[in-house]
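I hope you will forgive my troubling you with a question about protein structure. I should value your view on which stretches of the chain appear to form regular backbone elements. Here, with my thanks, is the record as I have it:
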Amino acid sequence: MRAARFSRTLGLCGLMLAATGLSGCVAALPLAASGMLAKRTVEDKGEAAVAVPEEVAVVMPTPNLTEKWFAAALFASDRAGTGLSVLPDPAASNDDEPVLPCHGGKPAILIDLDPGIAAFRPEAGPFVAQPGLAPALATARAAETEVLWISILGEAREAELRAVLAETGLDPAGEDTFLLIRDPAETKTQRRNAAAGEWCITAIVGDRRGDFDEFMDYLRDPDAPTPFDPLLDSGWFELPPPIRAAA
């Protein structure tokens, strides 16, 4: 199994180099900082703020985004041979594997469209994609990893979102899948879990820890250790919102 995974990794590395001209491949890159909610300002960390709707300010580092997007795509493809998702197992203890197994389904990378705690606003364009994201997704698809997009928006907004992905070059073929809310009471975590039987979600990208699972928003002490800490940067990738205003 390890040999097969190593072969897939080398293949995706070759695709990465061809798409971007990077001089080497990195299986997992440490991410420099976390997304911050509106109550934490740019001045707190001295970092660049990504352009997002007025309701929320997301503060993220900006260097080496291309490498980080490729690291997420590479991880998603490489993990496909393990039979494990990156969805947290609520019954996990410190001695257990902290994630749920996959029961069939195609490997997929899940990307959260919403900036911070606000909903993405497709009417607020024009938009551009984050640097390096489009070629990273192209290499994921070439490695037979599907791309899923999730948002708190309802299913009626799918056509608008698909137009944005076409505009930004993130889904030029219009073949990616949207996981959108089907009922006002449904959460993004519930929507994702409902889809887990159809796909094996092998990487999640979000701009805040609550994007990986809603339980992260309810920790009494956000800095307290959890059984899921090993997933950070190794299945859970904290990166800027994938789409930003063009201005």
Notes: The chain has one domain: 2-245.
